[in-house]
Amino acid sequence: MNIAHLLQRSALVHGERPAVLAGSRLLHDYRQLGARAAALAGHLRGRCGVRPGDRVAIFAANCPEYLEALHAIHWAGAVSVPVNYKLHARELAHVLGDSGARVVCVSAELRDAAFSAGADPAGLQLLGSPAWSQAALGAPLAMEERAPDEVASLFYTSGTTGRPKGVMQTHRNLLAMTMAYFTDVDDVQPDDAMVYAAPMSHGAGLYNYAHMLRGARHVVPQSGGFDAAELVQLAADVGRLSLFAAPTMVQRLVEHVRATGGDGSGFKTIVYGGGPMYVDDLRRAIATMGQKFVQIYGQGESPMTITALAREQLMDQQHPRWEQRIASVGVAHACVEVRVADAEDRTMPTGELGEVLVRGDTVMAGYWNNPEATAQTLRGGWLHTGDVGSLDEHGFLTLRDRSKDVIISGGSNIYPREVEEVLLLHPRVREVAVVGQRDADWGEVVIAFVVADGEPVADAGLDAELDALCLDHIARFKRPKAYRWVPELPKNSYGKVLKTELRSWL
Length: 506
Ligand code: AMP
Fold this sequence. Notes:
single chain; about 500 residues; alpha/beta; GMP Synthetase, Chain A, domain 3; 9-stranded mixed β-sheet; 4-stranded parallel β-sheet; about 25% strand; binds adenosine monophosphate
């Protein structure tokens, strides 16, 4: 089944319902959105020569046309290649070359960047241009049949380790991911509104399918991205707003709401994931916004779907294990099996650390043009996530750090997150990232990069306070050897802290 079927179905069943909004302004209902996707599919086929299985890239910041481009590509049986719009021209050139995408749907402000990355000028389709609007009103293409295991999308890994690889997400993967949203994340109602505050090329965009299926509203902020004040205003204007946000975005939203004396009304569900949410930040978020949060843990290789920590579990403060549970990433999604294994893939005993492995319908078909990496990552029929974690006796998974981020000092493993959680307890610490620095005596030593809350500091007294805090909470050997106070942490456009870059600073 072609994943574009979800839109086709909603265009029939929910034709009159509002589908796409630019800010709070309605652009298209579902009937129009379906007709536009079918016509644009016809344009891709007739004018651009896109055949089933061809790759078509989308290189754009969030914009209302993003959704119609995505669904038009699938409608035509082609493979979408959503590209992070903040990529450097060199990285974009790699994605275009590797995927073989000749046609690129690009927003006007990124046209030059696409040119410098070597995109074929004849293949550029300018989103929102007069030609695009014209094409969206053209003759519809009959939806191309797709087998469930055919590739629907190539998702390029963020490449914090090595060159980005194209994850082959099949129609089956995307459909299973969509169903998993309803079973384990949220029950979408037709008057809900999904707001795209995080990049649509990544997780936020993947949540369009569940909302498409239910005939809910899709809201693209005027800013095209994350702006806390704008989101709060949209929540008031549009109502029942749901969003996917990286933990750093949640933190900024919560800070804004607290500073302006607001509350969470207008927001329905805030799904967070993509990186660790620290317990202290989460407590503050719940206290400020209420019962709105759901956590997911996923990766491009099993999109948005490995584990989830449900609203009820997050709110069940009377539960004797609540503290541990909110520090976990929840339990396996219903449609996947999750286990924790040693280097030989043997399942670890409950509570012990190992690599997180996943099997199920959301797991990718492999990496594009990369049989070696595919065989390595999918060996034995399980996805090897590269994440380290442990399962408790009730099936809750607690992640440590990615294996490459673990610090080995004097032969002992130190998990940066544990140290970060402690440092964040200090009121002057806004953000922190702990990494290892090579050391002749110890192999590695612990270094903490710290962002101050309020004025930047370089104060030995404060370092001593942080030391004392660590000594109160964790083993002495885990204490940072140095604190580097920085104005901000380097992050990628999805809000993930770039530990590789921090290590290179050292
Ligand atoms: P990506 O494929 O770019 O979405 O990155 C996926 C990686 O982000 C995972 O392998 C984890 O290391 C990390 N990640 C995703 N969700 C979470 C979460 N809820 N908590 C901690 N780390 C996460």
